[in-house]
């Protein structure tokens, strides 16, 4: 490979995702200048520019685009080959940290049991993820994979099995007129303030769970934003507003003074198993396979 270093390839792959030298350095735990050095070394070995960089933007050259398309699968296969060899030599052991939001879905618990039976030398930790930060724990490497409420439109994260698709439910105070209904339409959301999720959750994700308008264009009022499910349920019970929740969370969070009414006319809620792109391991593959088998 003409002396090419794996670190140079890793740097190029991350830069191709981020298109930003600073963020690339943060992900690789190196300085921005080191990112530039690694890129220049790789370009020198190849003999042409892979990235165009100006004061305003970073983008791949046409040659860089082609190189990325060839490099990504080759790099992933090499990494997985090494990981598989290590796992075969010592068995799938160690620790797998599985994050979740709100409540652990029954299918996930079944998958954990199957995973532990198949990989008895690997301990499994179940870690609660804040409702307000569905993707941060993965990026901070606090968990290895996570079950989160969709949608997902994040660079650098891989979406695995998707499950528990069902109508969203409106959690509303039992004293509110909507609580007496057997079902609601999306237009009914204009009749009660929604309690949005605050914090680092990306805007598109927060809007999906607390829209500012109904599909018909009617404005939807918003209450004080919360960071945890318990904070939201407390405001609901006090008659301050309502929240859109997925079915399993509604069942788990059943509380006195709160009704959970299905809402038609909105995209179904769904859960997804996600993990960092390019960080798949024997552990995550085994758990993903166990969850997929559970869902069949």
From TrEMBL:
Record domain HTH lysR-type: where: 4-61
Keyword DNA-binding: yes
Keyword set, alphabetical order: DNA-binding, Transcription, Transcription regulation
Keyword DNA-binding: yes
SUPFAM superfamilies: Periplasmic binding protein-like II, Winged helix' DNA-binding domain
Pfam families, alphabetized: HTH_1, LysR_substrate
The family this protein is said to belong to: Belongs to the LysR transcriptional regulatory family.
Name under which the protein is recorded: LysR family transcriptional regulator
Organism expressing this protein natively: Streptomyces gossypii
């Amino acid at each position: 490979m003409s002396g090419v270093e794996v670190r140079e390839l890793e740097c190029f792959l991350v830069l191709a995702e981020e298109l930003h030298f600073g963020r690339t350095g943060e992900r690789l735990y190196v300085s921005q200048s080191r990112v530039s050095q690694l890129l220049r070394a790789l370009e020198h070995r190849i003999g042409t520019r892979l990235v165009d960089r100006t004061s305003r933007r970073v983008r791949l050259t046409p040659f860089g685009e082609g190189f990325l398309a060839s490099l990504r699968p080759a790099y992933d296969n090499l990494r997985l080959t090494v990981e598989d060899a290590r796992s075969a030599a010592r068995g799938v052991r160690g620790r797998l940290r599985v994050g979740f939001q709100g409540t652990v879905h029954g299918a996930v618990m079944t998958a954990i049991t199957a995973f532990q039976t198949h990989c008895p030398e690997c301990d499994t930790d179940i870690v609660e993820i804040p409702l307000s930060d569905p993707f941060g724990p993965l990026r901070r490497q606090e968990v290895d994979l996570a079950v989160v409420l969709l949608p997902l439109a994040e660079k650098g994260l891989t979406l695995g099995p998707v499950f528990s698709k069902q109508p969203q439910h409106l959690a509303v105070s039992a004293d509110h007129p909507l609580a007496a209904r057997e079902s609601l339409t999306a237009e009914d959301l204009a009749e009660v303030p929604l309690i949005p999720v605050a914090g680092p959750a990306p805007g598109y994700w927060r809007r999906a769970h607390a829209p500012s308008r109904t599909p018909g264009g009617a404005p939807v009022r918003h209450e004080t934003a919360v960071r945890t499910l318990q904070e939201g349920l407390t405001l609901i019970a006090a008659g301050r507003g309502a929240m859109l929740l997925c079915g399993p969370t509604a069942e788990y969070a059943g509380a006195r003074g709160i009704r959970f009414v299905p809402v038609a006319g909105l995209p179904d809620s769904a859960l997804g198993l996600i993990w960092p792109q390019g960080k798949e391991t024997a552990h995550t593959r085994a758990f993903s396979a166990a969850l997929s088998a559970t869902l069949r």
